[in-house]
């Protein structure tokens, strides 16, 4: 049976506010977290709540592209609203902005 919990992508999930958000969402979401340099903190969060942790500097276009490819390899490309990644947006901490991270096939 497919997992029914929504997917949350949390940038900077290994420490600080990103970690607190990940812990808060863990009971109701499948988590993908990013971290830049603190592998020990990422490993600790993964052990604590089972989040998938991916090393990524979200300010780097190359790293964002690799992050999308990694997520698509595990979850596929959203093609319809029922897909768990259809509504996944990248939340930019502290900027009050978001944008679609994964392209939806057939949309502009």
Describe the protein in words.
This protein has a single domain (7-100), classed as NAD(P)-binding Rossmann-like Domain (Rossmann fold, 3-Layer(aba) Sandwich). The chain has a three-stranded parallel β-sheet, covered by helices on one side. Strands 4-5 form a two-stranded antiparallel ribbon. It is α/β, with parallel strands linked by helices. The chain is globular and about 30 Å long. It has three helices and five strands, in the order βαβαβαββ. The chain has helices spanning 16-25, 39-49, 61-75; strands at residues 7-10, 30-35, 52-55, 89-92, 97-100.
Unreliable runs, pLDDT <50, ≥5 residues? 89-98, 104-108
Give the CATH superfamily. NAD(P)-binding Rossmann-like Domain
Number of helices: 3
- Can you give the mean pLDDT? 76
Number of domains: 1
Shape: globular
H/E element sequence: EHEHEHEE
Q: What fold name stands as the CATH topology?
A: Rossmann fold
Main structural class: alpha/beta
Q: Which strand-content bin applies to the residues? A: 15-25%
As a whole number of angstroms, the C-alpha radius of gyration is 13 Å
How would you write the strand order of the largest sheet?
1-2-3
CATH class: Alpha Beta
In this structure, how is the largest beta sheet organized? Answer: 3 strands, parallel
CATH architectural group: 3-Layer(aba) Sandwich
């Amino acid at each position: 049976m497919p997992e029914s919990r929504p997917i949350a992508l949390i940038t900077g999930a290994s420490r600080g506010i990103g970690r607190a958000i990940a812990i808060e969402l863990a009971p109701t979401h499948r988590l993908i977290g990013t971290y830049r340099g603190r592998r020990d903190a990422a490993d600790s969060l993964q052990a604590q709540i089972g989040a998938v942790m991916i090393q990524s500097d979200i300010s780097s276009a190359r790293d964002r592209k690799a992050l999308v490819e990694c997520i698509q390899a595990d979850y596929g490309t959203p093609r319809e609203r029922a897909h768990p990644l259809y509504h996944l947006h990248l939340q930019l901490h502290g900027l009050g902005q978001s944008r679609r991270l994964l392209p939806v096939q057939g949309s502009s």
